[in-house]
Sequence to fold (607 residues):
Amino acid sequence: TIHPRKRASNTFLPTHSSTMRVSSMILALLSSAPAARAFMHSRKVSPLLVAPTSSVAQAATTSTHRRITAVSLPSSSESRLYSVPSTPFDDGKSPFEITTPIYYVNDKPHIGHAYTSLACDVIARYMRHSGRDVFFLSGTDEHGQKVETTAKNAGMDPQSFCDEVSQSFRDLLTLLNVSNDDFIRTTESHHKEAVQHLWKTLLDKGAIYLGSYEGWYSVRDECYYNESELVDGKAPTGAEVEWVKKEDSYFFKLSDYEDKLLEYYESHPDLIAPVSRKNEVVSFVKGGLKDLSISRTTFDWGVPVPGDDDHVMYVWIDALTNYMSALGYPNMEEGSKFDKYWPASLHIVGKDILRFHAVYWPAFLMAAGLPLPKRIFAHGWWTKDGEKISKSLGNVIDPVDLVETYGVDPTRFFLMSEVNFGSDGDFSDEKMIYKINANLSNELGNLNQRIMTLVFKNCDKAVPVEMGEFTDEDKEILAMAASLRERTGKAISTQSIHEYVQHMVSMVWDANKYIDVQAPWVLKKTDTERMNTVLYVLMEVMRHVAILYQPLMPTSSNVILDQLGVPENEREFEHLEKEECKILPGKEVSKPKAVFPRFEVPQPVGA
Fold:
């Protein structure tokens, strides 16, 4: 038993009905998974998913008496291979660029950076396992007044400071097992060249002019604010603002793009998500756009403006260009990486930087005559125990601490399942402990342990061979497993990561119900052929579960696949319904080991 730092409070369980939710909480409190399931089934609580209709169940191919080394199971159509469900903004099969924002290097990474990176990683992995050509980009934003000031306060030159902090972000991605294909830094020479090329393009097209600026500026946000936007003398984000005295500045003609942006939002209703965030952007643009100051002369740490070394570029025109510079822009020739992956399929950002991505970035691209990204998704913020996270409150959540306490895959699971992706979420150790114990240790891990132990002990340490015909119950659970890819694919294709996890948790829930009802430990005394059939069905269901859990929990899923005897070259989604890739009867299995540890919930003092 592992003793974590604090006490926990809730779990992620099926939410089909209020009865389900209440009973699920009771499940999390019970000390053992078998006892919990016995309680649930005695209460006659339905699983999250409604049982398949007779037509779905009948789609499972009825098998004949089996004393062979191949088994016929339900198959999906070939058209579902190498793709995910199409949407109005994605055809489900073209090359796919997905990006995190590039992270600002003024401080070390926190839970927000981990959250964004993991969301992108889950989607990128899912797309890769579906056979898509994916380019997953992350990186660091290293220019601007804030970086220059922070470096000076640390007694370092800006470049050395950036080198050190940027590495901490790389290290975090490695720690979290994030599979980004590239990591870009805005201090790299090829990026600076790309930014300067974009600047020259905008200048040539008449979108930039030299003027002067004075007004409110937030160094923390690297953002200009109108007087009307200030709240109690601060930026809407709560950041301090300072008055920038009149200074020469280059401007981008943002005001020219007010109507063009609104027209584009109207004709591309899925560009910005969730809908609530889209509405905020539309409202902001309808409120009127002023030309945007895009250079500064009061500090030096930035990309020099071409032909005017007195100016450095405003950090956002620099930072946003990373999404193209990483693809080799300005090389846009046919066959180039830019030609292959641009426009980006998906930018995932925090809601606090949506304005830059959904207003400024599209306007820059329009002015340059370049295609706009297909989708911009803004997720919410995290709080800690109901309070805003801040250094002053001392409640900053270090993702490194989470991994050291709970492990990589449990951390990935919790952060991706705790809240609806796009909404705000609240973190507590209590919630994390209950979720890990209930969904991973009690349900998924214990189910795998029970199945493989029964097979190892009762089937001569090999996959069952002598089996009977599939019953309606067998065909039903197999049909549900066969449909799992399509259901999770629909969720991932719309960035509904929480729904993807719900489908996975529900499938495991149904498999636990199936094993408890079929009771193979009883069948071994009365009907070994039926026991073999039940265990084979369960192994095949677990094969689907483990393959489809890889995007979220890659290491743990592959441990389960190893125990099931699934070859390493048969773990892509295309292998789910290939007849030759199904669990092979007679294949030797090894003694199973626990996949997920269980965490002890400390009792309150005096309890």
Remarks:
- DSSP finds 22 helices and 17 strands in the chain.
- The two ends are 20 Å apart (CA to CA).
